[in-house]
């Protein structure tokens, strides 16, 4: 049996460092106060600071300490739900607008990484693997639909017999390979965007948790243990962790804890896992996702917890999910294991709203945050600057309240997630 992983978050060892930012020291004023120095927050701060606005970002830990710095780093096309589902739920015109928004988010992400010279190990190539024959047929139909109606020429349907051209993953019935999808080091991306925002004049206060928010005349007062901030506008981010600050977030977004592990560098064995520097994910409801790093490791995520902390045996639990897919890694040493909270919504679409004038929230990216979150931060910033054309695409997404009210929603969610997990196993 494998020994428990020796290290924590692999990204802490690979992401270029960012100098610690001083905590808030007494009362402050700003044009805009942002809660959370994750991908949404730093994307908004960069846009606002470049427009000449005075911006303060408060972060309870370090930059990227939340979901932005612990996730699988995958860049998927479109929204979290497929276009045929969106067409049925919101109509073809709105579905097209959502596709265009995601496509622009994709282009902007690659552009800003290049322009800011962010060293985040960006690689192209993403394969989605079907764990049932019927789901492969669905994937192939989605790819054909995207090619016919959305001009998505970068998708390749991969029959089961052709899977070894891309991956040695076992137990799958076919896949779709996205040449424009990809993966990166998400903590490095977050730190790189934060560095760009700081260079543009934004302020980031680490170790400064936001504890309360109240309207004060035409503006807002954001309370922290280190001093209050008065601001004309406030953006509250944080993937599922700010329900106490803005209760309506808790009505729509539920945090859950996911886990990841990383193997040692695999040497020649890395080519048996992926034939190129690709990432992959499967069609299970409790999804498995994995990517090959620049130094030949496999980073593998799978499983989740509905408590508030990581269970003590989580690394071994993830390894048990990995080995049926990559049995060639039975003797590979697990060197890192980490996890943390991310936010999900009932339809797996982000909860992005202007709650009232001067107060925006963005949360619940449900696994699609690497691409969507920085761009959504930019869109919120543009709305504050007077142009809400981009943001309006996201603010009326059909994201209902979680069922059961605040007392029953967690037990109901746990029951539902366990049920879907059982279906995955069956």
How does this model look, in words?
- The protein is an alpha/beta fold and 426 residues long.
- It has one domain (11-401, 408-420): FAD/NAD(P)-binding domain.
- The protein contains twelve helices and 17 strands.
- The protein has helices at residues 11-14, 39-50, 83-90, 92-115, 133-150, 186-199, 247-252, 270-273, 314-322, 369-384, 392-395, 405-425; strands at residues 28-35, 55-58, 74-75, 123-129, 155-159, 174-183, 203-205, 212-216, 219-223, 229-236, 254-263, 279-282, 289-292, 298-305, 334-344, 351-356, 359-363.
- The strands form two sheets. Strands 3, 4, 5, 6, 11, 12, 13, 14 and 15 form a nine-stranded mixed β-sheet that branches. Strands 1, 2, 7, 8, 9, 10, 16 and 17 form an eight-stranded mixed β-sheet that branches.
- Strand 16 and strand 17 (359-363) form a beta hairpin.
- The protein starts with 10 loop residues before the first helix and ends with a helix.
CATH H-level superfamily title: FAD/NAD(P)-binding domain
Q: How does the helix and strand content classify structurally?
A: alpha/beta
- Mean pLDDT equals 92
- Biggest sheet overview: 9 strands, mixed
Q: Please report the distance between the alpha carbons of the first and last residues.
A: 26 Å
* Radius of gyration, in angstroms, nearest whole number: 21 Å
CATH architecture: 3-Layer(bba) Sandwich
Which descriptor suits the 3D outline?
globular
Domains, number: 1
Number of strands: 17
Q: What are the secondary-structure elements, in order, as H or E?
A: HEHEEHHEHEEHEEEEHEHEEEHEEEHHH
CATH fold-level label: FAD/NAD(P)-binding domain
Helix content: 25-40%
What fraction of residues sit in β-strands? Answer: 15-25%
Give the low-pLDDT segments.
none
**Helix segment tally:** 12
Region (Disordered): 1-23
Domain FAD dependent oxidoreductase: 31-382
Pfam families: DAO
Organism: Chelatococcus daeguensis
